[in-house]
Amino acid sequence: MAGPPRDVGTPVDLFSPVTLGDLELANRVVMAPLTRMRSGASGVPGDLVVEHYRQRAGVGLVVTEGTYPNREGQAFVGQPGIVTGDQVAGWRRVADAVHARGGRVVLQVMHGGRVTHPDVNGGRRVVAPSAIAIDGAGHTEKGKQLYPVPHALTVEEARGTVADFVAASRRAVEAGLDGVEVHGANGYLLHEFLSPAANVRTDEYGGSPENRARFVVQVVTAVAAAIGAGRVGLRISPEHGIQDALETDRDDVRATYGALLDQLRPLGLAYLSVLHREPAGDLVQELRRRFGGPLVVNSGFGSVTTRAEAVALVEAAHADAVAVGRPVIANPDLVERWAGEHPENEPRPHLFYSPGAEGYTDYPALQDRRAG
Ligand SMILES: Cc1cc2nc3c(=O)[nH]c(=O)nc-3n(C[C@H](O)[C@H](O)[C@H](O)COP(=O)(O)O)c2cc1C
Hints:
This protein is an alpha/beta fold.
């Protein structure tokens, strides 16, 4: 009998390495995608943004903030893009900074869909699967404004948007990033297609669960074909109930996301990232089985992810890795702190979206404290 004894029943450690497709992670703490709106009108990540990601490169994988693949899809003032040559050059600096510290980084490609306004996306159309406005207002260059009724994408325009995701993903790889995470969560364009409340189309993209899943299948399949499935992840947030992309019928959710993942399974994607309040619950674990690949989880905005939660999720094998948001904002060296059970800095939410270094690159590392 050759080979070492199998570690049957040995819990896996949050601080142990893991491989997600082509991505080899030093530990299972993933920096969750975190919009910080510090890339100015040009959408070019500059010195401050480079420094922010450089500081946090000790996580197993950095997922960048949601980044627009075309100007129509820009959802926030100061959001970075991956459209222009300058934006690509900016992301190359981010990739180099993370790699220089031995880290890994993927770009979250995010089309905002109807969660935007012409005073955010440079006067362009606001688009969605159906012409249904979000009930509410969003922050624009001219203060808070009601969300407009979006233009319902034609089939041809939907195909053009798929092509924009592909071009954006190629640019991300060209910039030296290790891959992309397609943003299918949190009520933005892809999630709008999945939700029966936001998508009332009667063509091939609407109606049945399979039809509502079609656009996301097409985006992810095309991106995987372009840059290699092993460097593509997908983020979803079934039942999140955010930005009017409601999903209130569990059977429909299971059918819609099941149809999505059944079709993505053969691709062999790097990972599926699920935001859901019960990562260990039936729904997420069923979706994991149907996906058949590595699972990253996050329990959502309701409570801030704790060390104990992350450790338990990985040890119980409910996930292969955990996406961690606000603790990584507040602690550039979070993995070191969690590994050594050191105290943490508290996040300052009023500075999440403010301009400048305050609340962004000025959270101290343990070393700074020792030195001071
Ligand atoms: C300031 C802020 C910005 C966020 N931006 C994004 C984003 O761009 N894309 C995304 O998928 N999720 C985004 N999220 C959600 C986080 O990735 C994460 O799911 C959430 O913060 C809950 O995890 P936590 O308790 O570890 O913070 C954001 C959350 C916060 C607090």
